[in-house]
Amino acid sequence: MSKSDKMPRGAAERGSGAGSDPSETVEAMPHDLTGQPRAGSGRRAFLGGVALGAAALGAARRARAADRTEIGFASAKFFGKETVAQVVEMYNSSQGRVHVSYDELPPPSDSTAVHQLLVQQLARRNGSPDVFTQDVIWIAEFAGAGWALALDDAFGAEVRKDYFPGVGVACTWGGKLTALPWFIDSGMLYYRTDLLGGAKVPETWDELVKIAQATQKSGGARFGFLWQGKQAEVLVCDLVSFITGNGGAILGPDGKTVLLDEEKTVAAVEFMRDTIAGTKISPQDVLSWDEEPSRRPFTGGQAAFLRNWSYVYTIAQDPKVSSVVGKVGVAPLPHFAGGQSSACLGGYQYGVNASTKKREAALDFVHWMSSPATQLHFATELGLAPTRAAVFDEPALAKSQPFMQTLKPVFVGATPRPVTPKYAQVTLVLQSAVSRALAEGNVKQALSGAKERIATIVGS
Amino acid sequence: MSRVAAAGGAITRAPPAFAITRTRRIDWPPLLLLLPTAISLGSVCVYPILGGLWLSLHNTMLATRENRFVGWLNYRTLAADPDFWSAWRHTLEFTAVSTLAETVIGLGMALLLVEWFPGRGLVRAAMLIPWAMPTVVTSKMFGWLFDGQNGLVNWMLRSLHLIGGNIDWYGSPNTALGTIVIADVWKTAPFMALLLLAGLQTIPGSLLEAARIDGAGAWQAFWRVRLPMLTPILLIAAMFRALDAFRIFDLVYVLTGGGPADSTEVLSTLTYKTLFSALEFGYGSALATAMFATEAAIALCFGILIAHSLRRQER
User: Could you tell me if A309 and A221 are in contact, meaning their C-beta atoms sit under 8 angstroms apart?
Assistant: First the structure.
């Protein structure tokens, strides 16, 4: 199970769960959005510099180190041209008050392990680690357990104003801001510019179905539209974008009301089923596909449309593995008539340990990490897309990450998955029920069954 | 198993019984020598089982920090949990079908390999390759073989005109579990063959020779001489296999993740999800205990059969 794909950047790597080759995407990741291989020598030079500096300053340094507040920071492993550790070092050398020691957790592809390690550490309530990063779907769980410090006083107004709206919602639990956005990814629509045949990029699902069927009929592509229907976390991600795109929801804003059998929700899932059984724009294979298996036919030139995360773009433009170089465009996912485009939100966020004994230092560090300048650095050096909308307009980003810059409108519609401390249990019920609905066709019945079970989980 | 030991050891145990009646004092040195074994077995075997059992009587959840004794509550939830029963049924189906197929195919392979032919040593060694392969590799391989679009199996069936269009093996609830059984049979039949080959070699050649002189054909010799002699080993091998198959995890985890529509969810994957994704340690332990109980029941059934067949052989 891969209890996979909570985190879109890692999602493809996690596709290793099912028939994808992990190495190809792991390799692709560092290039992801940066377009450049990571520089190993730069790191060595950097470390050398640190050693030299330490030797030269000697005693003076030691005296100063004693004055600094020591805090711990735990994060899943991300890297591009630089690593998270290097960014932490940048903070350490930028000021003399706080020293952060970085504890690297496994990569997001091993999401279950990262989650477990964090839960074990936070549950001890001894203030370690003072600052941590978390997948977007753990926020409510950590906040509900009382492990995450409320950040309203320090950041509240800023987050509601400067960040993408969906990210702000995801970081809020019980009316309080309990996480601070780090980077974003979301589902998006990939299309073939050469197959549109003069039509504009579809904005509604009806338009997409029409273009897809026409393309299949004319022999332009074997498949109309590819998505991910495997009984895994990615299915919930796809589900959220369909349901929200029809104005429906899985959980009400109170986090307790289950809206799974509402008319709009059922209609959205029926549309998902129809892509396979009715309009036949999707092959039945999507029921066993997660990210990578669905990406391959698209970059192989066999499909007109694909729903996937931002990592696909780099692969689609690599002539070694893609036969559609220069023919791929990206747009926000379509919506239903009367709905609004929505995509499943992914990404990691900062959290401050509620038991930290060094609150000031922790907040100072998080403040620096979430500043526009640091977000820009993460974008250009690690390929992590900013959660602050304004950073997308920076010329430096346009220069080093032209593709990332085009994603701004996609991220505006990013919608969080159900926000509940019991998400880990809720998602298992959703995966099972929706997979059943798609495979067997009894949509209403499957969703009503899931509604009852989810109500028991979130109500208790 | 204990009944096997009892049946097999019945004859040899008689003289030591004498020794005990002669000296009533407890003989400490042998018992002390057993102590290291008892401690190591106790700490790695008995303690975790009892610990799991104890945990299953609590509502322990890592995230909510709940950790109360709730008695049999988890087991009552379990009894009413459709997910558990569907996973339980899938696991039993998988175990029964794969064990049966592996035993029959393994027996066929063993019967071939016990005969002499040029290059037999090489074939015997090569036979073990599927079994020696890491299961994740096997999973990936079968993932590609049964791929719904570009898989070799679909291509072959289409070329033979057995199917009209491609079948999405892992995407349909009707075929997914069967496909996983096929992968498991391919991987583990050689292991059965190895065990049964060893069993066949213990049957004295003179018996087969005598049968032949009495005019028995190959078929008769198999049913009347080889199979009866082999039955206990066959049952022991099948028991090993069944207990192992019941724990099926990696093939499902890599190939389907339990889907579609829960059709390949087995107890191991369900327990894994409950324990490590949802971090429900209490309920997860109840699932694990239910698995343990079912395995114990399977072992008991085989134990009775084995004891029975041994007794018949002694007669």
Answer: no
